[in-house]
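User: What would this chain look like folded?
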Amino acid sequence: MPIAIEQFDLSNYDIILSVSTAIAKGVITGPDQLHVCYCNTPMRYAWDLQHQYLKESGLDRGLKGILARYILHKIRIWDHRTAASVDHFIGNSNYIGRRIKKIYRRSSEVIYPPVALSDFTPISENGAFYLVVSRMVPYKKILLIAEAFSGLPNEN
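Assistant: Here's the prediction, encoded as structure tokens.
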């Protein structure tokens, strides 16, 4: 909830680094504080994927749908307003940088998420497997991925 993030008293800090996909960038900072936001993505459910989220959650019609759209409208207003108080945006990819530009009308630098490649070693055996690492949310289409791979010849 936006009101929760606004309750943090960060007045004793010179630099604020928020990592955000939703509300963390909404912290309240003063004029002498530097606020850098590492943005994983602007809120998908409030912006470009709103219609898909509402449909997949059954909130695309009726009174609940009207209420959900109204709440998302208010969230978009809050989200855009708080983006203006961020001094510097960092996107986690070029794609997210384009979303930051489109939604917030702000430029961003790109710093890819850190991955310790030395922690992983390739295996020499040829095993037939597929790996998807993701949250189980409808828009990621994990079931569709599973169905697609199960339909491949010799993969049942």
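The two ends are 44 Å apart (CA to CA). If you want, I can go into more detail on any region.
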